[in-house]
Each structure stands twice: as C-alpha cells, then as structure tokens.
Amino acid sequence: GKSGYDHYMLKEIHEQPTAIRQCLSERVTELEGCIDVDSLASVSVPDRVQFVACGTSYHAALYGTRLLRERGVPATAFLASEYDVDAVPIGDDALVVGVTQSGETADTMGALRGANRVGATTLAVTNVVGSSAARECDHAMYVRAGPEIGVAATKTFVSQQIALVMLASELTGEYGDELVAALRDLPGKIQSVLDASAARGIATEYRDSDAFFFIGRGYNAPVALEGALKMKEITYRHAEGFAAGELKHGPLALVTDRTPVFALVTGGSNPTKTIGNVKEVETRGAPVVAVTDGCADVERHADFVLEVPESHPALAPVIANVQLQLVSYWVANQLGRSIDKPRNLAKSVTVE
Ligand code: F6R
To answer: What is annotated as the active site (predicted)?
Structure first.
C-alpha cells in the first residue's frame, strides 16, 4: 500500500534515505574507510567504460561518466537506442555497463546483447534480481532500491547514482575518507530536505507557467536533465534541462517572465559561470529558483531558494535532485494529474 501517502511516487520519494542505506549496506566499511562491492570483485579495472541506458537511467549514466573520468577512467554514456556496436568500437578492455532499473528495457537489452556479441565485458546495474539484464550480462550489481510502483523513477534513480559512486570507487580504488563519510551522512541530509522542503510553495507559485527550465554544470548537468524529464512526465508541462553553458546557444530565446528557471548551484560546480547564466535569464524577467547549498551569490538573484545541505561535491547534486522531484510532484498534484500512471507511459518499456 501507499502507507498513508496520496501517491506511490511521494511514498517512494520519502523512501530514498532507506533506499540509500540498503544500497550501501555492507558495501561501505566505515571503520576501514573503504568501499567493497562483492559483485565487482572479479571485474578488472577497465581501460574505458561505455554506459548504455535510457531515460532516467541515462541521466544516472551521465553522472557515472563524470565519477569515472575524475578517477582517470575514460567513460562515455550512450543512449541505448543509439548504441551500435558496429559504429562504436569496443576495445578488449572496455567494460560496457547497462544501467537499467527494470533490467528489461528493450533498447538497453539490445545494446547489451550487441556488446556481448562482440566479446565485451558487460555489467548490469539494475534493481531487479534475476532480470534479463542481470542474467545476460557477465556481472550484475544490484542497486537495492526495493520495488518501485510509480511509473516515474525516483528512488531507483538515487540508488543508481549511489551504486555508480561505489562502482567508480571500487573499480579504481579511489574513494577517499571524505566520500565514505559523506555517503554515510547522505540519508540524513536527504531526510532533512524531505522534512522541510519549500517545494510545495514554489509549485503553487509556478504551476501555470509556460515552461520550466533547469540548468546546472558538472555533476548538476544530468540532474538538470532529470529535473526536466520528471516535470514533463508527471505534469505534462513543457520542461527542458540544459548544461548551464548551453542556455545562451539557443534555448535563451524561449526564456520569458512566464518560464521559471531552476538553477542548480552546489559546491564544486562552478558557481561563477552558472550565476552568469542566471543573470542572463533574470534580465529577461524569468523567475529564478536557486537550488543551492548556501551560495549567497546565486541566492541574491533568486526569487526562491530550495536548500541543499552541504555535502561532498559529487553528492550535493544527488540531494538537489530530491528537491526537484518534490517540485514536480507538487505541480502534478496541484494540477490533478495521474501521478503514478502518467498518460502514454509504461513502467517497463519492452519495445524498441
Ligand atoms: C523516467 C523513467 C524512464 C526509465 C527508462 C529506463 O521516470 O522511468 O525514463 O528510466 O524507461 O528504464 P529502465 O531503467 O528500467 O531501463
């Protein structure tokens, strides 16, 4: 059941602290300050990594590429439907990682089967034990989010992000005590967002807008994409997410006083440049919502602030995403949408 929540989606948003604890359980050894994922023990350090995924899982994959590149492993994320083993050379030492909540997505399975066919090592990062992806890949790492009923992926996205933090750390042996400590503190920080988010009021203010834009850099760029996808799916409103620098290369033409812009600015994600982008939209009269861990410079330009507790630079965007989930949820709720089963969408997409 929904445990007293109006929708599974809201319940699942609130389950995120638990989902993260489950994902980390017995994998992060705090005393030794290390990350040890059993299922990865036999995966050797790859020369490069190719992610294949769709939708929200693709956004997690984009996040994963940055984690790996920061640790010296070249990594690329492909939309599974665009992945073509004949066009994308797969070296002997490449690891192809399918990120798929259900483990059944046809596009992702097609890409993984192609990778298997040419002899690549494949790894499924999935939520479903015994799924096609788990069975057909050489290795499987479970994100352990528990069943997700809402069509819109929420807790499984967070769990994928955390699984990829562990994957990148474990594959390279690089994590650092700060990351381990920050992972331990993450569920509590997300809980504090769930307990005191300004998202509902912001949703009330902006629910009838012409469009919603989301911008961010670095680890926040995939979060901007995910914020927009969630908004589209459950509110049916026009929403777009961009790497903040792209705004001026075209989308800025759409910005008016009826298009709120959500600016993600958290530690380490180049606030100065993003604030420059915020000023550009402010000049055009766009309402600005800063999603930030206390950056006063962006708050100065914002009509509203969604607070992100301070965390590790790679993890603050994970928390920021929760704020965006709540905004989409409350906009959809106030518009009376079919939140758990949006029109035209299915939980598991088994056609190509
Ligand atoms: C968005 C959403 C979809 C899925 C996509 C991939 O909320 O749920 O975009 O993320 O269909 O599904 P999986 O992860 O099962 O491969």
So the answer is: 347
pTM above 0.90, yes or no: yes
Tell me the mean pLDDT in the region 255-268: 95
Of 342, 306, 344, the closest CA to residue 323 belongs to: 306
Q: Is 56 in the pocket of ligand 1 (CB under 6 A)?
A: yes
Q: Is 328 a pocket residue for ligand 1 (Cβ < 6 Å)?
A: no
Could you give the residue numbers annotated as active site? 347
pLDDT of 266 reads 96
Residue 71 corresponds to which amino acid? R
Q: Is the CB of 46 under 6 A from ligand 1?
A: no
What SS3 class is residue 94?
A: strand
Tell me the pLDDT band of 31, cut-offs 50, 70 and 90: low
pLDDT, tens digit, for every residue of 74-95?
A: 999 999 999 988 877 787 778 9
Q: How many CB atoms lie within 10 A of CB 183?
A: 26
Q: Dihedral of CA 302/250/330/162: which sign?
A: negative
